[in-house]
Amino acid sequence: MDRAQRPAAFRPRSSPVQADTSMPCPFCAGNEESTPPALETYGRSGSWLVRVVPNRFPAFEGDQPFVVEHRGPVFTQATAGGIHEVLVLSPEHENGWENLSDEQAALVMLAIRDRVEEHSMVPGLRYSQAIVNSGREAGASIDHPHGQLLGMSFVPRELADEQAGFARFAGRCLLCTTVDAEEDAGYRVVYADDRVLVICPFWSGVPFEMLVIPRAHGPHLHRATPADLVAVGRALRMVLGQLHEKIGEVAYNIVFHAAPYRAPEPYHWHVHVLPKLTTLAGFELGTGVLINIVAPEQAAEELRVAVPA
Ligand SMILES: [Zn+2]
Ligand SMILES: [Zn+2]
Ligand SMILES: [Zn+2]
Q1: Are 266 and 173 in contact (CB under 8 A)?
Q2: 304 C-alpha to center of ligand 3: Å?
Q3: Considering only Cβ atoms within 10 Å of each terminal Cβ, which end of the chain, N or C, has fewer?
C-alpha cells in the first residue's frame, strides 16, 4: 500500500498500432480477399459479423506431434504442430470489445466456443489458448480489433501451474470458493450479475487486473451454456468500457483460460483482463516478483460498474 498512488498518476499509454496505415486493412469488410479464406463466419445471411481466418504467420502449424529432442546436455528442443487462427471481432475497424453490442459480443464468445470445440477434435492437440491483444503495448500488430486462437499439442506452463493450484486447494473448487468469498467481502467486486462475477483479484499482479468468473462451475469454455457465454461477453464489454472511461485509452490483453481438453478437473474456466499500464522491467524479469502499485481494493472501487436494469 505504501507504493499506492492515485490512478490519475498513470499516463494512459496507447501508441498507434501500425506505423503505416496507408495499406488497406485486411480485416475490414470488403477486403476479405486479403486474408486466406474464412474457416467460419457468423452473422445473418449476406454480410459477416464475426470472421475466423487462418493466421498468415502462424506460431504453430502442421500436425507433427510434440516431441522433445535432446541434442546435447543443455540443448533441448521440441517440435510443436498446431493451429493458429485469427478471430475478427467485428466488421467495424474502430470497435474494440469495449464498444461491441451485446449481440456482437455474444457472437464472438460463441465463435470462440465453436473453434475450441473444433480444435478439441483434432488428434494430437491438447489445449486451446484464446487471446485478445488490444493496443501496441499489448502486442497488437494490426489496428482492427481481433483475437487469436492457438490450438496446441502441449499444455503450457501457466495452465499447468493453475491446474496444480486447483489441485492443491482442498475441499471445494478454488474459483467457486473465490466467488463466494469475494462476494461476502464485496470490496474487490467490479461487476456482478446472476451469471458472472468480475473481481480485481486479491493476488493482482498488475494495476487494474481483473478476473471474470462464470458462476456455473465447469472446466471447459467449449462446454459452457450459451447463456453463460453471452453473459461473459457482456461482462467483458462492461468492465472494459469502464476501464476506458476511468483510466483512458489503455492497451490490454484478454486471456481465456480453460482446462486442457482431456484433463478437465479440477478446473473452472475464467478470463483474465490485464491492462498494460506498466512495463515489466529488470526486477520483475529477474525475480518473477511483480510489484503492483495499485491495491486491488482501490482498483475495484475505481472500476465498479452497476448492473443495468
Ligand atoms: Zn479494419
Ligand atoms: Zn468451480
Ligand atoms: Zn487463469
Answers
A1: yes
A2: 21
A3: C
Of the listed ligands, the closest to the CA of 217 is: 2
How much of the chain is helix, strand and coil, in % rounded to 5? 30, 20, 50
Q: Cell 472446466 appears where?
A: 219
Question: CA 171 to CA 232: how far, in whole Å?
Answer: 26
Nearest ligand for residue 212 CA? 3
Round to whole Å and give the CA distance between 59 and 150: 8
d(CA 275, ligand 1 centre) in Å: 23
For residue 268, the ligand closest to its alpha carbon is 2
Give the residue from 3, 4, 9, 13 showing the smallest Cα distance to 275.
13
Give the three cell numbers for residue 16.
498507434
pLDDT per residue as tens, the chain (309 positions): 344 444 445 555 566 676 667 788 999 999 999 899 999 999 877 789 999 999 988 877 777 777 777 777 777 777 778 899 999 999 999 989 999 999 999 999 999 999 999 999 999 999 999 999 999 889 888 899 999 999 999 999 999 999 999 999 988 999 999 999 999 999 999 999 999 999 999 988 899 999 999 999 999 999 999 999 999 999 999 999 999 999 998 999 999 999 999 988 999 999 999 999 888 888 888 888 888 889 999 999 999 987 665
- Whole-number Å distance, alpha carbon 159 to ligand 3 midpoint, is 7
Ligand number nearest to the C-alpha of 273: 3
Contact call for residues 122 and 186 (beta carbons, < 8 A): no
* Contact (Cβ atoms closer than 8 angstroms) between residue 300 and residue 190: yes
- Cα(185) to centroid of ligand 2, in Å? 18
